[in-house]
TrEMBL record:
The keyword Transferase appears for this protein: yes
Single GO biological process annotation from the record: spermidine biosynthetic process
Protein name as catalogued: Spermidine synthase
Family: Belongs to the spermidine/spermine synthase family.
MF-aspect GO terms: spermidine synthase activity
Keyword annotations: Polyamine biosynthesis, Transferase
Species of the source: Paenibacillus pini JCM 16418
InterPro entries: PABS, SAM-dependent_MTases_sf, Spermi_synthase
Limits of the PABS domain: 1-43
Entry annotated with the keyword Glycosyltransferase: no
SUPFAM superfamilies: S-adenosyl-L-methionine-dependent methyltransferases (SSF53335)
Cellular component, GO annotation: cytosol
Amino acid sequence: MVQADLIQKVNADVKEIFPIVRVYAANIPTYPSGLWTFTMGSKKYDPLEVDETKIPEMETKYYTPRLHKAAFVLPKFVEDLTK
């Protein structure tokens, strides 16, 4: 039950305001479709252009710079909706 029209509308609306727009997806099994998308807009910073050398060393159990970048890899059908 992916709401394709909503994904397209949100993406288009955010692009009208922000020059940098990124979408990421997460599986949330407690919601009906399971797959949710989140749209980020920025006037300056691109979340895909993270300089890994500037990330202070942090000890985490989950987050890594590779995971950060991977979060923005979308399923093909979502990628097609955001073109």
